[in-house]
Structures are given as C-alpha cells and as structure tokens.
Amino acid sequence: MVCCMSLVHGLLKGILWAAVIFIIWAISSWFRRGPSTPDPSTPAGAPRVPSRNLFPKDTLMDLYVYVSQEEVFSDFNNTDALFWFHRDLVYGDWTTGEDGDGCYQHYKEMDIPETIQQNGSLYIHIYFTKSGFHPDPKRKGQYRRLATVHATRMLNKYKRRKFLKTKNLLTGETEADPEMIKRAESHGPVEIISHWHPNLTINMVDDHTAWVKGSVPPPLDQYVKFDAVSGDYYPIVYFNDYWNLQKDYYPINETLKSLPLRLSYCPLSLWRWQLYAAQNARSPWNFLPEDTYEQSDEDQDSVKVALLETNPYLLGLTIVVSIVHSIFEFLAFKNDIQFWNSRQSLEGLSVRSIIFGVFQSLVVLLYILDNETNFVVQVSVFIGLLIDLWKITKVMDVKLDRENKFAGVFPRLVFKDKSTYVESSTKIYDDMAFKYLSWLLYPLFGCYAVYSLLYVEHKGWYSWVLSMLYGFLLTFGFITMTPQLFINYKMKSVAHLPWRMLTYKALNTFIDDLFAFVIKMPMMYRIGCLRDDVVFFIYLYQRWIYRVDPNRVNEFGTSGVDHTQNNTAAPAPDAASAAITDKPEGEKKND
Questions:
Q1: Which of 227, 365, 432, 547 has the fewest CB atoms within 10 Å distance of its CB?
Q2: Beta carbons of 21 and 278 less than 8 angstroms apart
C-alpha cells in the first residue's frame, strides 16, 4: 500500500500541475488584454508600448544548428560543428514537412570527444535567420541583429548515481558489479555522471501577441526576449524534451563510440507552449533544496506514461478521482482527530492496535531516514507518528512519576489502561485477539527475518533490522487490523467504530485500486492495494449482521438508553420498553 500510495501521489502531483497551467494561462491572457502600465523608469511616466514579433507571419527563415563543447559559440567557419542546415522554413507554417504538419527531422551520429567521455559538456546552438542572412556577426552585409534568433542548450544531462555498499551479512559477499565497487571507492558513494538522450525537439512558437515588457507573467517571462533598442521581441525558441522518459537516458562513458541525435523542428501553438513551460517550471517549494521537492525519475515517468498510454476517458476519470482522493484523505484525517478527541469510552475498541500503530509508524520513519528518502515524505511520516503518539494519550492514562526518576534525573513515564477499557470485556477480547494473532505473526516474522538475512543484501545490521521490519509490515501489516474484527465478533456490535473515518479511508483504497491498474506497477503492489478492501468488506458484513441495538455504546461513548434515570428504583417493564422503542431518530443514526 505504501508503494501504491507513493505512485498515486506522484501522479497526483503531475495532475495538480495541470491546474497551475490553466491558472497561468488565465493570468497571461489577462495581461495581454489589459492596458499598458506606466513605466516608472521614464521621466514622464509614459505608458509602455505593446511590442510586436520581429518575425512577421510567413517569414522565410534559414535554420543553422551547431554542436560544440563551448557554451558561447563563435566558430561559424568550422564545418564539423554544423550539425544541420535547413533553408527556407516558413514561420507559422503547419502544412509542409515530411508528414504535412510543418515538422522536419534530421538524424546524425556524432563522434564522441574524449573530454565528453570524461563528464564534459556538449552544447547545441540554434540560429534562425531571415532568408538570405547568416548568424556570424563577422560577416558584414550578411548579418543583421534583428533578423537573427539564437538559443543555446546543454545536450547532455548530469544525473546523480548513488552507490549503496551492501553485502550479505553472513557471508560478506555482494552481487554488485566489481567495476561499480571500484568507482564507488574512487569517486565516493555519490557520483555525478553525464547522460544522453537521442531525441530533442526544437519548437518555434507561432505567437504574435503584443507582449508588454515587464508584464509577461512567469514562467513565460523566461522565454520572451525583448530587443533593447527597438523594444520588440524575438520569436520564442523552445527546446522540448518533455516526452523524453528518464529511463531512456543512458550514461556517457568510454564504451560509447558515437552519440546518436535525432533533431526535430516543429511549430508550436501558444497554448501548448504555455502547458510545457508551466510543467517545466520550478516547484513552489523553491525555498527548499532541490532534492527536497523534486520528483524521482520513476514518478516523472509514471505521469508521462499515464498521459501517453491511458485511454483519454479513463485519464479524465483519473484526474477527477485524484481530486476526490485528496478531499477524502483530508476528511478521513479530520474525522479521525474528532473521533479520538471526543471519545469518552474505549468499550469495543482495540487499544493494542493503537499501540502497535505507533510501532509501525516509528519503523517506517526510521526506514525512510536510513534510505535517504526526500524531505517532504519524511515530514509527512513524522506528522503521522505524532498523531499516533497523541492517540496514546487518548486510550491510556499517561503520567509523570517524579518520585522514581530514570537515572535519578528524568521523571519516568507511566502508562495505565483507562478504566473504561479495563472494566469492560474489551480488554479480555483484545488480549485474546493478540494472543491468537501472535500464533500466526511470530512464525511469519521469524521466517521473513531468516529469509532477509540469507538472501537480501544490507548495509549493516541496523539496516537489516529496519528493512526486515519494514518489509514484514508491508507484507503482513494488514493482519494487525484483524483484532478489531475479533472484538466486533465477540461483542456482536460495530456501533463503537468511527464509521465516517473508515468510510473515507475505504473510498481512498478503492481509488488506490483504480490507480493500481492505470499506472504500471508489479502485480504484488496491485495485490497489496486490494488487501485493505477485503478487511473493509468484512467490516461491512459485520455491520449488516449485527443489527442496531440502542443498548450498545456508539462511537461517541453514549447509548440510546438513559442509564442515569431511576438508578435506585427498577423501572416498570412497559417504561423500559418505551425507553428503547421511543429512541429519537437522530440517536439511531449515530448508532
């Protein structure tokens, strides 16, 4: 379930970015329609004049593409650096090209310089010039500043590769590649490696909006470049690699003999460009380090694969359901807090399950800290642990023993079962359920610990303990939900359960099932997403067979019968019957 939820949140994050896209589009549209604003830099405060595109519609253009190791390119006479030259492209033309969509392609395999194999950088330099002009400023008469559009980008991508030194704790052997071990010893546990992707698209945005300098909304302002003299803006050149999956990048090393590159040129509409620009914009978590908020490669690919391969109707349903998932998650959290905050009686509730939940949350937190999961996930798990610890104060009496201090300095924490739990039959049933459960869990736990020790590599004994506990809880943790089912069976009642919170959580598990079949994942993860559904259906079955009884205590610690009246005198049979049958309709609903 944890793995399924991480993928759900990855897809949900990408979907929420879509909402940001439309907001940016609305803001930019408002700016384009709005009047020009006064420029405080001018003495008279004259209004800014809307600019125009330096390349009018249907302008004939020549495309020059150079590939060089220099970030600032000037070697225009080097024919080896010229990767692609295409004459007489039409700006804003959507009908020409190989497939009649205005797109052109060029493929070439480039030799790899030795410096690139040693983590060097390779740059692509794009020049669009009006037909008849050249991008070289040294060619007088052939170069014109307002007739030349230039854009540069690094072709390779640097990615961090982490090497975890793991081994079999019994034999000391490892299945890791010996070459990787040598590199880890020489470069350290984290290595920065240059990666390559063979595809890149050059988009020229078909846009003639009267942009106003200083009023272009972010992140669009990063791409609209104004000429300092004329005040007009250059055509927008956009390097589009959004659909390049992270899994298709491969490292550049000594084994590669050449670098293939398929370069495509396509026109791009303003609206689609705004979509891509918003998707590539930096996350709002800009006050945190990059590792804190960025999605993993798997999360990024899962969103793109879902967009590419999912049926449009199913994808639309997934977007709607993702928003509903967030709402249900918030409502489940709110009702869980309300339930335990207002709870007066613990009759019918498994206190041991609450205590075990604290242990489970603690194991998950220690595990993700040991495996260096990103900061946002760590915070969310830590908050969940704090909530579980708060629940302990609601199900047990927690006091400080200042007389018997720990080490003679620190007061001891004393935990004592509440009277409503001890004096009812719930404690007996809870102890009985965990006794029966231990007969199943302990053998499974022992077998899983031995398997993990024999066949799984670990960083050390501490990591083995955490990974073994985490893996066991991930595989068999749903079994700990069964003690509450046993208590319900013994008491023949489910009126004490927080049904609102359970309903919201159950609806979220059904949504997780939908994501499990939309997103590609191993079958074991899909099975894990279905296990909680089985337990909830058993809860529903118990609610159906255990009919409403006004004598039973409901989830707020009250019942339909007023036990405070006539405690000294026994009521007449008719009066007792009336007290039960004349129960207000609102209290029946609470049951």
A1: 547
A2: yes
